[in-house]
Amino acid sequence: MKVVFFHRKPNEGNFSIESLFNYIRANLPTGINWEIKEMRFHSRGFFRRLYIGFEAFFHQGDVNHITGDVNFLALFLSKRKTVLTVHDVGFMKQPNPFYRFLLLWFWIKLLVKRCALITTVSQATQLELLKYVSINPTLVRVIPVPISNRFVALPKPFNQQEPCILQIGTKRNKNVIRLVKALEGISCKLEIVGELDKELESALEAAKVKYTQSKNLKDEEIFDKYKSADIVSFVSTYEGFGMPIVEANAIGRVVITSRILSMPEVAGNAAHLVDPYDVQSIRDGIIKVITDAQYRNVLIANGYLNRQRFSAETIALQYAAIYHHLHSKGSS
User: Fold this and answer.
1) What CA–CA distance (Å, rounded) separates 293 from 253?
2) Beta bridge partners of 264
3) How far apart are alpha carbons 60 and 293 in whole angstroms?
4) Which DSSP helix (H) or strand (E) runs through 298?
5) End-to-end C-alpha distance for the chain, whole angstroms
6) How does strand 63-66 pair with strand 254-258?
7) Which DSSP string do the residues of 65-80 spell out, in sequence order?
């Protein structure tokens, strides 16, 4: 059986989908041969999309797996042997109703019905998707994101006097401005990975938060950021999954995250949950994990157990079962 993984052309500095499926492919059982088909162009503009659609049509396998961000390829592939992974439907937050209508039809409704199976990375994303399209729920299966085997327990003494708080990502949904406001007056160092715009720079200056900033980091450099952190903050307002939660759990760092959407599902009992829209709730959570060592240690211990749910070996077997299912149906 040959499985073709259809990947977007990566955006600069953004390889999350590619890394995710690298972990899965490395753990697929024998008997599954695979090939990666990376699109020649970014998914922008009608004619480029048309080109890469035909490119995909001529590179089909026994099973086709659209791995994300190029959902429209489903229009060009054999329905009976195609699986589509949906990471989130955050694009439906688009404020323009015309664009939202186009996205609903050309990025969800038409495409979902052109696939034999859909996978989502969380139950929260599954439920969101099913709000927008009428489809048999049994055809939408939840398979979470696997964690890299490099993330293993690396405990360190907690710096209670000036803890290092790691924030990965600075897009609007990452909610960094509210985090910064919550940190005002708290002795800490904020480690930001991502671009700083003027609004965020002004917030950091107003709150007088000590911080460092970096961007375009390689995997090993991000891993080093986890190792030096005391707290990992992930108080997002929207996430399809929330990989930093599990990565922090695995390495043994205390996590603060949001109590909405996928984040409680991913964190389980291994993070302090806050209201991401309430600065005081974020602040209280940070103070709680800084000052309460017993509570902090319970969260860290729970994190080591939580990490086991996201092993690449287990998740690869779930995908393998889908591939075998589609192949057997296609062959019959």
Assistant:
1) 13
2) none
3) 54
4) helix 293-307
5) 14
6) unpaired
7) EE-SS-GGGGGGS-GG
Please give the single-letter amino acid code of residue 105: W
Six-digit token pair at 69?
């961000």
Bridge-based pairing of strands 254-258 and 272-274 is parallel
Whole-model pTM: value is 0.88
* Torsion angle of C-alpha atoms 131, 132, 135, 138, degrees rounded to 10: -50
Instruction: Calculate ∠ Cα 127-278-239, nearest 5°.
Output: 30
Of 8-12, 67-71, 173-177, 309-313, the poorest mean pLDDT is in 8-12
Counted residue by residue, the chain has a size of 332
pLDDT at residue 148 in the model: 86
Mean pLDDT, the chain, whole residue set: 92
- Structure tokens that stand for 73 in this block: 């390829």
One-letter identity of residue 91: F
**If you search the block for the tokens 């700083």, which residue do you land on?**
196
Domains located in the chain, CATH noted = 2-146+311-331 (3.40.50.2000), 164-309 (3.40.50.2000)
- The DSSP secondary structure of 184-249, one letter per residue, reads TT---EEEEES---HHHHHHHHHHT--EEEE-S--HHHHHHHHHH-SEEEE--S--SS-HHHHHHH
Question: How many CA atoms lie less than 13 Å away from 297 in the CB half-sphere?
Answer: 4
